[in-house]
Structures are given as C-alpha cells and as structure tokens.
Amino acid sequence: MKKTTIFTFILINFLLSACGQTQTDVNKSAYQINSEIEEQIEQKIKTFNGVSMGSMDFKIYQNDSLIADTDSKGKSIECMLMTTLSGDTASILGFMGMFAGFGYQIDLFQDTCIVRHFAKSDAEIYKLKKTDSLTFGVSVPCKSYKLTLTEKPTIKKGEIISGIIELESEDYYEVSNGDENKYRVVLKGCFRTEPLQTLDDKLK
C-alpha cells in the first residue's frame, strides 16, 4: 500500500473520530469570490512529500482569556490538508496534529458552504455543552465564518480549489485532571486542495 494511501486512511479516521459530537441544525452560508487573494494564498501553502500543506493563524481563548496568539509571533503555522469529493460536495479539512489537534472542516456546495471548528484528543476530554458527556472530539459550530475562494468552483473530479477561511467558534469545554475549562478559537486558514477525488479513487 502506498504511503499516500496509508496517510489517507489515517486522516479519514482522524476526521471521523473528531466529530464525536456534532451540531444537529447547521445553517449553510454563501461564500465569496475574490481572485485577488491568490497571491496571499501562494505565499502560505506548499506540498511536502506529496501531501498538501496549508497554513493557519489562530487565537485560543481559555475562560475568555487569550492564551495563544500566532499573530503575535508574526509567523503562520503549517497545517495538513485533506480533501474528498462526494456527489456535489467537496469536504476540505485543515488541521494541526495527528492523534490530538484541532482545525477546521469546510463542506462546500455549488453556492453555499458549512464551516465548523473541531478539536480532537486521544482521551475523552471534550464536550460541546457543560451537560454533555465527555468524548474524544468535538465538531464545534461557528459564531461566524467567512469563506473566500479565488474562483467559483464546479465541484467536479480533478478540480483544485483555493481559498481563505476565517472563523470564530462557539464555546466548548475541556475537562482535564478534574479541571473544566471553556475554550473558543478564532482562526484564519489558507488552503489549496489537491485535485478533487472521491474516497474510492484515493484508495485505489
């Protein structure tokens, strides 16, 4: 089995397990088109060993206090990208980490999109609401998000999609060593997908 196929299996498992708790009522929003962001994206992305890499800038708030800010360091953080095509939907996943980490998921349709933040751990420490049971990962709704693409996509096999996602997550919770903390993430990601393929095509 090729390294890229093994990597795909790992990422699929990561994505599925990261969505242990999901929002039951998600509203789609329109995305924007702006070809002028192409230069900004070009400066932020690259490919490493055949794997698409994007970038993230983020702020993390714990109990409403800022605890991490990549902007203050003046350097974006590299992140991994995975894209799959299913019917008329392209799913774009950008994340940091492997068995533990966080990032964003975009479900892209012809004229609309759904965007979520997610966090994943190798221990059951997360929950969306204070009354929820703990789970390995949460798929977190956004207070607000804006997706800007360089051109309008057709959502077809072989297409490459470039864009910038900006989001602010809703609050969610982490319980570790008996302490419960509330988190919120503000994130900006630049991405350029590999040519769109179905999962079956990827695993051939």
Can you walk through the features of this model?
This protein has 204 residues and is mainly beta. It has one domain. The chain has three helices and 15 strands. The protein has a 15-stranded mixed sheet that branches. A hairpin with a 3-residue loop joins strand 8 (101-108) and strand 9. It is globular and about 50 Å long. Residues 1-6 and 20-25 have low confidence and may be disordered.
List the helices and strands and how they pair.
Layout (H helix, E strand, L loop, with lengths): L2 H16 L10 E2 L1 E2 L4 H7 L1 E3 L2 E12 L2 E5 L7 E10 L2 E9 L3 E8 L3 E9 L5 E2 L9 E4 L1 E8 L12 E8 L2 E5 L2 E14 L6 H4 L2
Parallel strand pairs: 2-12
Antiparallel strand pairs: 1-9, 3-4, 4-5, 4-6, 4-15, 6-7, 7-8, 8-9, 9-11, 10-14, 12-13, 13-15, 14-15
Radius of gyration equals: 16 Å
Name the quaternary structure: single chain
Identify the overall geometry. globular
Largest sheet: 15 strands, mixed
Strand content: over 45%
Please report the total strand number as a whole number.
15
Whole-number count of domains? 1
Q: How are helices and strands ordered from N to C?
A: HEEHEEEEEEEEEEEEEH
**Strand pairing plus helix content: what structural class?**
mainly beta
Average pLDDT level: 87
Low-confidence stretches: 1-6, 20-25
H/I helix tally: 3
Kindly state the percentage of residues in helix.
Answer: 10-25%
Summarize it:
The chain is about 15% helix and about 50% strand.
